[in-house]
Every structure is written in C-alpha cells, then in structure tokens.
Amino acid sequence: MTPLAMLVPVLAGQICFTPPDQTAGWKRLDISDDLPAIAAPPDVDQFRVGEEGWLLERDPSVYQGMDRHTGRATYHFKIPKGARRLDVGFNGDLRGAKVEAVAWVGGRQYNLFDDRRVAYSLVSVEWGVQGVDTVDVTVHHHLRPVPVVGGWTVARWVDLGSETEVSPAFRVTRSLYYRHPGGRTLELCNLPGQVLTVQREALIGRPASVALPRGS
Q1: How far is CA 155 from the centre of its chain?
Q2: 7/106 Cα distance (integer angstroms)
Q3: How far apart are the C-alpha atoms of 216 and 214, rounded to whole Å?
Q4: Alpha-carbon gap, residue 189 to 62, rounded angstroms
Q5: Under 8 Å CB-to-CB from 150, ≥6 apart: which residues?
Q6: CA nearest to 122, candidates 159, 142, 97, 145
Q7: β-pairing, 15-17 with 7-9?
Q8: C-beta separation of 157 from 54 below 8 A
Q9: Cβ count near 125 (within 10 Å)
Q10: Per-residue tens of pLDDT for the chain, all 216 residues
C-alpha cells in the first residue's frame, strides 16, 4: 500500500485504486494516458471532460399533463432541445401494464415502442430522432388505478466541458469528476465502455483534487 492509494488488478489490462479521500462531495482526478477510462461505480454522479455522457435535468415545465380514456391514460411531456431520453417515475408499480411511447417532431409521429409490459414504477424512453419536441407515454391500466406521475427527468448526451453555463471548476480538461456520496468506500477503476451520468442540480460546490499513486 502506498501513502496515496492501494492498487488492485481486477482483470487483464484493468487497474483499480482506492483514493485516500473518502469524504462526501465532489472530487477531481487528472486522467492519465494509461488509464483513459477511469471511473467511479456506475451509481455515482460523474463525468469526464472531453467525453459525452448523460446529463440529467429535472425541468418542472417538461410535464404537460394527462388525458384519460377508457382503460388508458396518456401523459404529455415537452422535450427540451437536444434531449435524447425521458425517464418517468410513477407513484406506484405499473404491475405489468402495457405501455406505449410516441415522439413528435414538428407534428410528425414516431412510434418508439408499443405494448411494452412494465412491472415497476419507472418508464424509460430513448430516441435517436433529431428535433423531438414532445413525447407521449400511454399506460393501459384497465382495472388498475390510474397511474400518477411522481417525477421525471430528461437526459441530454453532452460533453460538460463544452457547457459554458457550468462552473469552470467543473470544466478542467482531462479530468474525471465524481461526487462521493459519503458513508462508503469508493474504488476508481479503468472501465472502458461504462456510460457516465450526472444530475445537473448536483453540480454545486467546488471539487477537491485526488491523485493517482506515482508511477500508475
């Protein structure tokens, strides 16, 4: 063990380390050439400057309301420019209800999925169509109670380093930023292919710097 961290080989070509700073809050790590995909566990808010990832936003104006029909309810969402995913949380499990999702681009309809059975309370909708302005989600509840929307997020696929409204403290080039939740020990690993996600409202405060051991 070094004074800074303990290196642990996980798989061939993959290295993990445990930073000594395990306090809650934002951390910044310089990305080295030999560990270009360094990342925290996937449930942690994080991003790498210079790479695209999911930026989640909870805009209260997105949800436009609901229309009820016999045995089904349609929920309307206004989609911000550049968004590519919508996550809708209901106040109770949908218990296997059929769900449909439709995207609208300037009045033109694109079916995203039909009759998807959803057992739990979360419905995720993703699209590759450009210029989506509205998404409608229909739940066929039939004899079940009418589902109530409890929350939602929209996600944009962006490089936060290019977002000028983000504080410069979060835009240092070749950096991994991650928010330690506290109460647990985090390892950082070189994980090519892991998609990074961060919530916009989490981008507050000033990150503390952590470092890899010398020679890593």
Answers
A1: 7
A2: 53
A3: 6
A4: 36
A5: 89, 90, 91, 121
A6: 97
A7: antiparallel
A8: yes
A9: 23
A10: 333 334 444 444 568 999 999 999 999 999 999 899 999 999 999 999 999 999 999 999 999 999 998 899 999 999 998 899 999 999 999 999 999 999 999 999 999 999 899 999 999 999 999 999 999 999 998 888 899 999 999 999 999 999 888 999 999 999 999 999 999 999 999 999 999 999 999 999 999 999 876 555
Task: Give the C-alpha separation, 93 to 132, whole Å.
Answer: 28
Q: At residue 181, what are phi and psi to the nearest 5 degrees?
A: -80, -15
CA 4 – CA 201 distance, rounded (Å): 31
> Hey, is 168 helix, strand or coil?
helix
Is beta strand 53-57 parallel, antiparallel or unpaired with respect to 149-158? antiparallel
Inter-residue contact 26 to 206 (CB < 8 Å): yes
CB-based contact 171:8 (threshold 8 Å):
no
CA atoms within 13 A on the CB side of 32: 13
Kindly compute the dihedral angle of the four CA atoms of residues 201, 133, 163, 24, in this order, to the nearest 10 degrees: 20
DSSP state of 147: P
**Residue 158 corresponds to which tokens in the numbers above?**
């962006």
